[in-house]
Specification:
By secondary structure, the chain is mainly α. It contains 8 helices and no strands. The longest helix is centred in the last third of the chain and has 37 residues.
Length: about 160
């Protein structure tokens, strides 16, 4: 029988070794988090997570470019997730047993005003581009006001 041959080859041990880690996120959210995490410039391991959190707290757009900030804006933990991670910590469970995505979200859930900081960083990252787009329009308005001021018929 097929089952007998599978168990005799020890594939059950393979499944035990690759047992999925528990997650506090629902399946769809976990999958989306995994996709966003892979798109980040560096895969967040423990050291990179701390650097990532430090950059967010310091609003450092030198460490996180505009694309990374945009990705992180999709990863903002919702209130229920924050409560779940806090409860997980209050129960004194080992967060290393969680999936990588859960560990990242756990770190994000402890950043105060996380979403607002990311919004500010996105604005900072796009500021120079916005100024460059506005300069020609400002120049036109300035020139028009000079001509109106210099016009003797309007006075």
């Amino acid at each position: 029988c097929i089952r007998d041959s599978v168990s005799s080859r020890g594939l059950g041990d393979v499944y035990k070794r690759h047992k999925q880690k528990p997650s506090l996120l629902d399946h769809t959210r976990l999958r989306n988090m995994a996709i966003c995490t892979r798109k980040l410039p560096e895969k967040p391991n423990d050291k990179n997570r701390q650097e990532l959190i430090r950059a967010i707290n310091n609003l450092d757009i030198q460490v996180l470019n505009a694309d990374a900030v945009e990705l992180l804006q999709r990863m903002v933990p919702i209130e229920e997730e924050i409560k779940a991670y806090r409860k997980f910590d209050l129960d004194r469970k080992d967060y290393n047993e969680l999936t990588d995505e859960d560990q990242i979200m756990r770190h994000f859930s402890y950043v105060k005003r996380f979403e607002k900081k990311l919004h500010i960083m996105a604005y900072m990252a796009s500021f120079e581009e916005n100024v460059a787009l506005l300069k020609p329009q400002i120049a036109v308005v300035t020139e028009a006001s000079r001509k109106l001021k210099a016009n003797t018929k309007i006075k």
